[in-house]
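Our consortium's second objective concerns turning raw sequence data into structural hypotheses that experimental partners can test. To show how far this objective has progressed, the report includes one record in full. It was chosen at random from the queue rather than selected for favorable results. The single chain below, 272 residues long, was entered without modification.
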Amino acid sequence: MSLPPQDIRPLHKSRFRRPGIYWLPNLFTLAALFSGFYAIVQAMNERFEYAAIGIFAAMVLDGLDGRIARLTRTQSDFGAELDSLSDMVAFGVAPALVVYTWALRDFAFSKTVPMLGPWLSTRLGWIAAFIYCACAALRLARFNTNIDVVDKRYFQGLPSPAAACVLAGLVWAVNEWQVKGVDVKWVAWALTVFTGLTMVSNLKFYSGKDINLRKSIPFSVLVGIAMGFVFLFVSASTLPELLFTVFLLYLLSGYGLWLMERLRKRAPPDPH
């Protein structure tokens, strides 16, 4: 017995209907991806201040897309995959290329470093940039596979957005002081490698995910937040240095937590 035409049509539509995607959170993710791409283009044009600003903009947009998805209940596997790809470009490839173009490529034109030889001496720049880029990829892959088993209060290893902002902050702050990247190439090299390796370490970094925005806070805390906004407004002229200092301190905070845990384990037990 054949079905009437009106019964066949809905079955045909449901069988071949394609699942849609949520546009709002993915729009922010694509904006973060564009910011990373923008940073790469500006670095190629040697406009390093704009390149650094692009990475910081990507960090802000990356922090918004997940929160918007949770608030609007539009989380999806597609959004999670797109976010990872965007993070790799904005916080892996872009910072590595920006710092390489700014300071590290000068190693290719430098004199041979004693004890290293001519081959390694001229390739130190892109080796450091690749170490950072590879560590960012490994960090993102580990985060995606361990997302359900780690302590939500802490990140395992330095988050890639914070790592990218450390390098972008260095480029922006030094550029504000009218110092060329070639003059601080060894500082840039060391910080690039150090930041990259910290991303794949097992150090704990506070995530802030246990902060409950619906919980009441003391009045003094609200006053402190207001004073913080005033401080940011007053120090707008030194914003690059301030951002670099903040993210550098966050980078070092993981080592501080590790040291505190080591000292706590070595401390003698309380007799009481």
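The partners drew two points from this record. The first strand starts at residue 154 and ends at 156. Residues 23-205+218-266 form a domain with the Four Helix Bundle (Hemerythrin (Met), subunit A) fold (CATH 1.20.120.1760). Both points have been shared with the crystallography group to help prioritize constructs.
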